[in-house]
Amino acid sequence: MKVLVSIDESEGSLYALQWALEHLYLPEIEGSAAITVVHVQPHTAVPAGAASVIDSVKKAQEESASEVISRATKLCEQHMIKAEMMVIRGNPKEMIVDASEDMNADLLVVGSRGLGQIKRAFLGSVSDYCVHHAKCPVLIVRPPKSSPK
Question: Which residues cross the membrane (predicted)?
Fold first, then answer.
């Protein structure tokens, strides 16, 4: 089974990766799941002619992507799983769905940020987009509810 897990800077996406590693990859069963982790860097609109700004934005995005992939790699190593890591550029919603189609994924795993109805209406939801556009099943992993203090 080919599993694509989408991650970003959020704890919810790393929890989704952890969930996938713990529930979908079974080392005792040969071929249980091949896991690919994808991080999408969104294109950033920068005013024309601001070369120094463009360079600093690109550098910040590259550092952020490197940190996200590093955290995902460590999580995979803790579970003794070697997953393929990918960083791509574009609209996260579209690129995640495209990546799942390109690799012929059997399952797409995404985290939930828990946006309220109003924020989701204005910002849109990556997980909602994936559910409606991906050609494979989509698993949305919600983070555990925090315990009351």
Answer: none
CATH code of the domain containing 95: 3.40.50.620
Q: How many domains does the chain have?
A: 1
In a domain, 117, yes or no: yes
What predicted TM-score, i.e. pTM, was given to this entire model? 0.84
Q: For 88-121, what is each residue's pLDDT tens digit?
A: 999 999 999 999 999 999 999 999 875 555 554 5
Q: Determine, yes or no, domain membership for 146.
A: no
Residue 84 is assigned to a structural domain of this protein: yes
Tell me the torsion sign for CA atoms 47, 49, 55, 56.
Answer: negative
> How many Å apart are CA 34 and CA 31, to the nearest integer?
7
| 3-class DSSP assignment, residue 125 | coil
Domain span at residue 101 reads 2-141
Q: What is the pLDDT of residues 7-47, one digit of tens each?
A: 999 898 999 999 999 998 776 666 667 899 999 998 776 66
Sheet strand arrangement including 34-41? 84-89, 34-41, 2-7, 107-111, 138-141
**Tokens representing 69?**
């992939």
